[in-house]
Amino acid sequence: MSKTPIEIRRLLPNTNCGECSLPSCMAFAVKFLKGDVRASDCPPMAKPENIGKRIALKELEATIQDTTATRLVIRGDLCTGCGNCVVACPLNVSVSQEVSGGKGPLTKEVIMNVKDGIISVLNIDICRRNESDIESEPCRICIDVCPIKGAIDFI
Question: pTM of the predicted model, to two decimals?
Answer without folding.
Answer: 0.49
